Amino acid sequence: HLSPEMATQMRTPLVELSSNLSWGLGTGIQHSQQGDALWQYGQQIDFQSIMILYPEHKFGVFVCTNNDVLNADVALEIAHRALGGDIEPIRRAMHGEFNYRDGD
User: How far is Cα 66 from Cα 81, in angstroms, rounded to an integer?
Assistant: First the structure.
């Protein structure tokens, strides 16, 4: 459980990647019509995970998989099926498609 101050820092954009995506303290933040989604992913040989939370709406999903060979985005695709919405900004960030010096 986080202190209110730490939770606020996690939700506060610190690095802007594009108009709809930024990094907070330890989490990605996707800005959309549905509100801000906090997200974080992990990947290791044969394993993937992703967390996407909408704190303002008090819902989200955490997906753990044991396969990344067939689909590098399998955890993200499962999360998308559960939550809907636009996942392209998160996919692009996961694949390092942003120039951190110049923005998008």
Answer: 18
Distance CA(57)–CA(79), nearest Å, equals 16
* Whether the Cβ atoms of residue 78 and residue 71 lie closer than 8 Å to each other: no
Unique residue bearing structure tokens 């995506």: 21
Number of Cα atoms under 13 Å in the Cβ half of residue 68: 16
What's the CA angle centered on 92, arms 91 and 98, to 5 degrees? 155
> Which stretches of 1-104 are DSSP H helices?
4-11, 74-83, 88-94
> Which pairs with CB-CB distance under 8 Å and at least 24 residues apart come from 55-59?
55/7, 55/11
Sign of CA dihedral 6, 10, 15, 20: negative
pLDDT digits (tens, 9 = 90+) for 24-66: 998 999 998 889 999 999 888 888 899 999 999 999 999 998 8
Tally of CB atoms within 10 A around 94 = 19
Measuring CA to CA, which residue among 23, 46, 36, 32 is closest to residue 96? 23
